[in-house]
Amino acid sequence: MKTFTLLFILCQSISMAQQYETQSFDLIKKVDEAEIRFYPPAVKIRSSRKNGFGALFGYISGRNSRDQKIAMTTPVYLGKNEDNEMMEFVLPRSIDKSNAPEPMSEKVEVYESRSGYYIAHSFGGYAFDWAVTRVRKNLEEIAFRNKIKLIGDPIVLVYNSPYKIINRKNEVLFEVDFESIGKKDSK
Fold first, then answer.
1. For residue 183, what pLDDT is reported?
2. What is the pLDDT of residue 9?
């Protein structure tokens, strides 16, 4: 049994060694166990969650106007767009809106996100609905206590493959009103 456990941990460690480019942000300040961040614009692809991963993965695997393979990045965004459940991939920084290949599927949209300020709270494990709800409620309480105005629906960020079992990272974000975050670090 010990041998199996050690082999399992070794395999997980090897799979975790694979590194992906991660979307950049600026940490503005910490608020309790959350962070206020500034995200600059990023080129992303999105699809409805029911088409989701397969359509987006097809695009980065070469099902685009240039048959171009595009590196996977993190995180994967899960959220809403006009009441539709959406999934989004961030494209590598080397790709901008002017040089992004056109999707071959009408289920995939290439767009540039706008910059914004967000409050974020990280959590481990899988992003099950109950876990997201718990973190979302905690984030709403932190925002309320600190008089931070939340804008819109929560966004879930998933950083790991579903096959990774240990040391998983997820986050819940809300866009925030810049004027409500203040400038002084509260920690």
1. 58
2. 45
